[in-house]
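Bit of a strange request maybe. I'm writing a small parser for structure token strings and I need a real example to test against, not something I typed by hand. Could someone generate the tokens for this chain?
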Amino acid sequence: MQRLLDQAALLIRDARELSPEQAVGSLKEAVGLLEAVRPSKERDGMMALAYLRLAQVQRQLGRRNEAERAFMLGYSYARSSREERVRRLAEKLSGEFVS
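Reply from user aminoacidic:
Good idea to test on real output. This should exercise your parser:
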């Protein structure tokens, strides 16, 4: 399981350096890996981060519906993860996504 977490963390990190289109694929791949891992604080925090970043990229690409869906999933995972840093990011982004 740790191997999957590590792979997902690399995909999330590296997505920042990719084009928006490539970042979508990388972040979706990270979510897929994380879905195979048992729920935990670490896993849920990473799920939140992947979805929140996916929301930002989807919005950048003009995909409003996909961005809002990813944001809501990320926000939910952030709240359940108890990872303070991810929760702060979700709260910051809520001003951008909740109109």
